[in-house]
Amino acid sequence: MEKRNSTIVVVTLGLLLSVASSSVSFAQSGKFGQPSAGVIHRDVSTSTRSNYMPAGLIVHIPPVGFDPMTASNSDLAKYGLPPRPTGQTKLAQWEKDYGTVKHWIDPTFTHLNQKLDTLSPNGGGWSGLTYDNSSQPASRVVGWWTQPFAYAPSQDQPAYSASWIGLGGVNGDPLIQGGTESNVKSGGGGQYHAIWEIVGTNKSTGGAVTVNGLNNVPGDNMYCDISYSNGTANFYFHDLTNGNAVSFSQTGITGFSTNGEADWITEDPNFNGSTLALTMADYGSVRFTAESGTPSGVNYPPANSSYDTYWYAQPNGDTVTYVSSHLNSTGNFTTSWENYN
Hints:
Layout: E1 7-9, E2 40-43, E3 57-61, H1 73-78, H2 88-98, E4 103-104, E5 108-111, E6 126-132, E7 140-146, E8 162-168, E9 175-184, E10 190-199, E11 209-212, E12 221-229, E13 232-239, E14 244-250, E15 262-267, E16 285-294, E17 297-299, E18 319-325, E19 332-339
Parallel strand pairs: 4-14
Antiparallel strand pairs: 1-6, 2-3, 3-14, 5-11, 6-15, 7-12, 7-16, 8-9, 8-15, 9-10, 10-11, 12-13, 13-14, 16-17, 16-19, 18-19
């Protein structure tokens, strides 16, 4: 895909997000669900609770009584949270996303042990929005969506889908991403979890990693915030329906160099490094609200650009995932699944 300044491009590129199961483990007590021991900045590499324990992966759990609405910006930054905006509308939304947490989760992480392919413009699997403005590169991306139900196109057939936001990833650029998966297990039954992934840096995860403990299920309203600065990627997930939230950072990153793209994507994952997409689950539709910018603030991508380009994905067999409703002035667009046979 040719790079252009100030462009919005909806893409169908082959990437990655892998599949797996997850376990549930979380800590919750105190005013906002914090462990009674108070402040925790847990280096996952010193723990035996997770099967994914890279050096420099730090979980942030605020102390009992911590209130994001009154905390200083320096205290917010300690826990991987962005500064409060000043505008009334932005502040009201910020309070919903960060100030209404019921339980700060101390998560476990499950590495899926699946190798990713190199991203190429000719691959299949992505549908959604990439905002590419090299004159104002994004270093923070946020998104809202409702986790969809997953249905198998054929009886007793496993099927997979992922909804995520990210920084980078276009034309082989490194990628930092986080979101949710909605899958159907072999023999039936849904499989739902939060995931994150880093591609193309010294801290590449080598596959998707589950975030265990959010307890997100279909129909839950999800919010995700990812930012990158000076070798650190901050991840924040908030299930706005059940009130669970998790904040963690991967530190020590080198080699993350992109043209500043921000992504909001529904994807048909690849498995075990295969260039062929898996059977995509019928996820119905996913309506994203998209914002991007810098760690200090985000805004809607500009709508109705003359460079808007929308593509159909051709992930597998007779099904497609595509943009069914284009980006509007309030940052909303929709991706949908369809069997065209």
